[in-house]
Amino acid sequence: MLPKFSGMILTNKVAVVTGSGRGLGLAYAKALAAAGAAVVVNDVDADAAHAAVKEIDDAGGRAVAEVVAVGTTAAAEALVQRAVDAFGRLDVMVTNAGVLRDRVLWKMTDEDFDTVVQVHLRGTFTCARAAVNRMREQGDGGRVIVAGSPAGQRGNFGQTNYAAAKAGIAAMVRTWAMELAKAGITANAVIPVAATAMTKTIPAFAEHVAALEEDGTPLPDSLRKGEGFGTPQDVAPLLVFLASDAAAGITGQCIGIGGDKLSLWSHPQEVSVAYADGGWSAEAIAAAWPVTVGRAPETVGIPAPRT
Questions:
Q1: Which of 2, 52, 174, 265 gets the highest tally of CB atoms within 10 A of its CB?
Q2: Between residues 208 and 157, the one the model is more confident about
Q3: Are 227 and 163 in contact (CB under 8 A)?
Q4: Residues with catalytic annotation?
Q5: Comparing C-alpha atoms, which of 145, 233, 158, 226 is closest to residue 191?
């Protein structure tokens, strides 16, 4: 059964959702379809992609599959072309596909780094570029919705590759918001916190995620409210909102959602400044640091879940 979205109507809109065979991507695809959009489901797993399409079709939605690994220009153009061939246009590009290769810096290989950057950062870039080319050709605006992460906002132990890619994605969104404004195309990042294969390995979440998966035991308020941690279905309404006409004026933002929590992440900005006539020497910086700009250094890392 598809979720119900009575207030946000996406009829006549066409969306591509990468990595939508399962997890968050599947929740996004189902929510967009429920709101009336036609959806191109993408995954590297053909069985998962076709199962997602069947689920959407059986519930009265419209969907087709495009099985391709995200990252290359050819893959991005194939996704856009699939939308055009099947439904005649493209209005929404959702870049959700991702992989993890977690290791501490001194153990991370070139392949670990390159694989994650290829899928997350380059895949977001190539898919957004292909989508924007089509949207600009159509001439009536569009939506680019990308997947960020708290790791990209704050860093996370063992995730040099993933955090770097997600931080880059946030920076691209801010750039695209300026570049695409004249064409009426918005670009925003969703920062989700949800029970997925990626988060079930976190000890503080594992027991609750397992219970949710096994018998549908609801997540406790300590997670839904205290940590802003919920299900993929809790995140999906934000995608519907950002794809709708109601969000036409929202662009360049990193928007967090999870459980019962909705948030707006700040852009990087100067938080403390000091001046020295004629410039700074190393000795002057050392003397000034603890009593001026260094009095309250910024924290790093995602706060540990409360248990």
A1: 52
A2: 157
A3: no
A4: 149, 162, 166
A5: 145
Residue with tokens 């406790």: 220
- CA-based nearest residue to 192, from 145, 131, 132: 145
Q: Which CATH architecture has domain 14-194+231-264?
A: 3-Layer(aba) Sandwich (3.40)
Amino acid at 103: R
DSSP 211-272: HHHHH-PPPPHHHHTTT--B-HHHHHHHHHHHHSGGGTT--S-EEEEETTEEEEPPPP----
Burial of 290 (0-12, 13-18, 19+ CB in 10 A): exposed
- 240, 5 contact by CB (below 8 A): yes
- Which tokens hold the place of 1? 């059964």
CB-CB neighbours of 302 under 10 Å? 17
When pLDDT is cut at 50, 70 and 90, the band that residue 11 belongs to is: very high
Output 193 or 74, whichever has higher pLDDT: 74
Contact 264, 255 (CB under 8 A): yes
Please provide the distance, in angstroms rounded to a whole number, between the alpha carbons at the two ends of the chain: 34
Q: So what's the pLDDT on residue 303?
A: 85
pTM across the whole model: 0.93
- What is the reported pLDDT for 219? 85
> Could you tell me which residue, 271 or 213, shows the higher pLDDT?
271
